[in-house]
């Protein structure tokens, strides 16, 4: 699995529509997804998977350079339901299609059913005429990051959660990751971002900025539950070497907020059985780490928060060769994730 900072052929996304996850019939979210797609398309082609009955809306909201592909899905998290692309030494690209249970199935998952989501990876690969590996392990793309040189980071909170693969040991899970992604070294962090409904996806907490270097979600507030989580991740990373034997350089980025869902926002979301409620006062798992690395560019979330400016400067300094574009992304955050979660890179050859 190449690092996200390696060249891409294109970026895949899914169009949001479910009114029990996105407020006001998903219209504000659609506007922001459209801005994200347009920002990424400055750097690489973007394909948007859209359900049949939303095709016209998407056509009216997206500029013509965004390719619209008919894909049915239960929600719009391409990072998690799309394929994880891998590439071999002959530059052939294939996709890994993981099992999926809506972030925990009937034991803490976010919605039921998820029958359309489990077909997304196959549909993406069919559209691209790309060979597919079916992996029999529940895993979401947001739960892993690789450096493209044999190292993978993930969290115990997610991958060892009994609501994912209760019959697999840590070693068996590691073996699946090694086999499908061709990694040699797995660095286990503990918990993900405080109150992250994905059970601690690493893509909200920590990412590789290049081989040997990571960016870690941080807070200086010792009274915030995030402090202990980030310190633990820092300690584990500092005590690890990567697959090439390098010590890992850790950059910190201070979290926004804390941010909370407002009453008006919550009221705009339809309440339905079998869907986790989004209540006012809920702490939102806001993180600047949840950005997308495009060819020559970075598309990062902003929150209209006092930390936005420093976060953007930090990311610019870590990617001096790329153009950094900030998108006000609270509408994506309200749905439970951010820009990295709604995108999936297809490697270039
Ligand atoms: O962290 C991600 N990769 C996705 C977040 C999904 C949240 C579901 N509501």
Structural class: alpha/beta
What is the makeup of the main sheet?
Answer: 4 strands, mixed
- Give the helices and strands as they follow along the chain: EHEHEHEEHEEEHHEEEHEEHEEEHEHE
The backbone outline, from C-alpha atoms, is globular
Unreliable segments (pLDDT under 50, ≥5 consecutive)?
none
> Which hetero compounds are present in the coordinates?
6-aminohexanamide
Order of strands in the sheet with the most strands? Answer: 3-2-1-18
Determine the N-to-C terminus distance: 13 Å
Radius of gyration: 18 Å
Helix amount, in percent? 10-25%
Q: What's the total count of β strands?
A: 18
Number of helices: 10
Q: Mean pLDDT, rounded to whole units? A: 97
Beta-strand level of the residues, as a percent range?
15-25%
Explain briefly what this protein structure is:
The chain has ten helices and 18 strands.
Characterization of this structure:
Strand 1 (8-14), helix 1 and strand 2 form a beta-alpha-beta unit. The longest helix has 15 residues, at 27-41. The relative contact order is 0.18. The model has no long low-confidence stretch (mean pLDDT 97). The chain is globular. It has helices at residues 27-41, 55-61, 78-81, 120-127, 156-159, 170-181, 225-238, 263-267, 308-318, 330-334, and strands at 8-14, 46-50, 67-70, 84-87, 93-99, 132-138, 145-146, 151-155, 185-189, 206-210, 213-218, 249-254, 259-260, 283-284, 292-294, 297-302, 323-328, 344-347. It is α/β, with parallel strands linked by helices. The strands form six sheets. A four-stranded mixed β-sheet has the order 3-2-1-18. The two termini are 13 Å apart. The protein has ten helices and 18 strands. The structure holds 6-aminohexanamide. 6-aminohexanamide binds at residues 77, 79-80, 103, 110, 140, 142, 197-198, 201, 203-204, 335-337, 341.
């Amino acid at each position: 699995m190449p690092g996200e900072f390696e060249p891409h052929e294109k970026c895949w996304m899914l169009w949001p529509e479910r009114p029990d996850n996105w407020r006001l019939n998903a219209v504000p979210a659609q506007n922001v997804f459209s801005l994200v797609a347009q920002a990424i398309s400055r750097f690489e082609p973007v394909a948007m998977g859209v359900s049949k009955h939303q095709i016209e809306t998407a056509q009216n909201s997206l500029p013509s350079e965004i390719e619209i592909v008919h894909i049915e899905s239960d929600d719009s998290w391409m990072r998690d339901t799309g394929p994880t692309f891998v590439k071999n030494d002959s530059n052939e690209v294939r996709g890994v299609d993981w099992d999926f249970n809506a972030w925990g199935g009937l034991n803490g998952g976010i919605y039921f059913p998820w029958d359309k989501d489990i077909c997304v990876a196959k549909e993406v690969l069919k559209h691209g005429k790309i060979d597919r590996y079916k992996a029999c392990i529940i895993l979401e793309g947001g739960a892993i990051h690789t450096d493209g040189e044999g190292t993978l980071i993930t969290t115990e909170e997610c991958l060892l959660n009994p609501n994912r693969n209760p019959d697999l040991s840590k070693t068996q899970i590691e073996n699946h990751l090694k086999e499908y992604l061709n990694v040699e070294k797995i660095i286990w962090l503990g918990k993900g971002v405080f109150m992250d409904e994905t059970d601690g996806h690493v893509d909200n907490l920590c990412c590789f900025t290049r081989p040997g270097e990571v960016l870690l979600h941080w807070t200086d507030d010792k009274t915030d539950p995030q402090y202990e989580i980030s310190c633990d991740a820092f300690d584990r990373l500092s005590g690890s070497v990567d697959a090439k034997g390098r010590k890992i350089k850790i950059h910190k980025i201070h979290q926004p907020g804390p941010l909370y869902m407002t009453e008006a926002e919550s009221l705009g979301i339809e309440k339905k059985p079998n869907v986790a409620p989004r209540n006012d006062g809920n702490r939102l798992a806001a993180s600047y780490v949840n950005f997308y690395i495009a060819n020559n560019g970075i598309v990062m979330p902003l929150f209209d928060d006092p930390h936005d400016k420093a976060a953007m400067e930090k990311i610019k300094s870590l990617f001096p060769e790329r153009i950094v574009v900030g998108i006000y992304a609270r509408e994506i955050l309200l749905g439970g994730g951010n820009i990295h979660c709604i995108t999936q890179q297809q490697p270039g050859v």
